[in-house]
Write a sequence for this structure.
């Protein structure tokens, strides 16, 4: 069983929809949680970074962490065709493991006009 | 400024040959990471360099894989006696310090025939 599970989709939504992306994890040592966006043939780019349980909002994006359930989410409001990409959750335990990110499989999202 | 660059962008090789993949991190970044992204496995950590410390090699899948970082800057990932299962996109990332955002390069797409 993988340490981080993410539904690979694909997910197809109309423009303007609210998108919910989720990951579950099994390693209780994970403390830092990230969402990356990856366009085709490009490297991942950081979207959101959170530490500990709670919500963090940045424009149309909200990241949510529930450490008690080992569950993280990314919500995208008013989705746009330019949001079409693969979304990857990532996490690490901090300390000497700072550099070692563990990723989910990635969810392929398509937002159609 | 310039981002992380990787070369070559594509590499096709025959089974059993050795390959070298190069990464130029962002200038001044002390930490450098290699990941592998394949359809079946998602994005996996391979190795992590931080300053002059011994690298964290815990993600290397076999002793056919090695990496070095010269002068605290450029890094080379070497795969000896390539196998078909080595076919993947190899991504390099760098960060200013280990706890900081990792910036990814565009990757090298390796195909082993």
């Amino acid at each position: 069983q993988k340490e981080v599970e993410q539904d690979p989709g694909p997910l197809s939504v109309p423009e303007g929809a609210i998108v919910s992306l989720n990951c579950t994890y099994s390693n209780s040592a994970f403390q830092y949680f990230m969402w990356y966006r990856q366009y085709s043939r490009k490297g991942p780019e950081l979207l959101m970074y959170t530490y500990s349980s709670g919500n963090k909002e940045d424009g149309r994006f909200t990241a949510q962490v529930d450490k008690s359930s080992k569950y993280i989410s990314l919500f995208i409001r008013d989705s746009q065709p330019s949001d079409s990409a693969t979304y990857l959750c990532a996490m690490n335990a901090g300390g000497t493991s700072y550099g070692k990110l563990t990723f989910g499989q990635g969810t392929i999202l398509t937002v159609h006009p | 400024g310039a981002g992380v660059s990787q070369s070559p962008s594509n590499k096709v090789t025959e089974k059993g040959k050795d390959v070298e993949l190069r990464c130029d991190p962002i200038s001044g970044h002390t930490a450098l990471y290699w990941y592998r992204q394949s359809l079946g496995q998602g994005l996996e950590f391979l190795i992590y360099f931080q300053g002059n410390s011994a690298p964290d090699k815990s993600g290397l899948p076999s002793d056919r894989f090695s990496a070095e970082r010269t002068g605290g800057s450029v890094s080379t990932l070497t795969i000896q006696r390539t196998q078909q299962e080595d076919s993947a996109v190899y991504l390099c990332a760098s960060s200013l310090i280990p706890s900081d955002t990792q910036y990814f390069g565009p990757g090298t797409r390796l195909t082993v025939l």
Q: What stands out?
A: Chain B touches chain A at residues 4, 31, 33, 35, 42-45, 48, 50, 56, 58-59, 91, 93, 95, 98-99, 101-107 (CB under 8 Å). The beta strands of chain B are 5-7, 10-13, 19-24, 31-38, 42-50, 65-69, 75-79, 88-95, 103-104, 108-112.
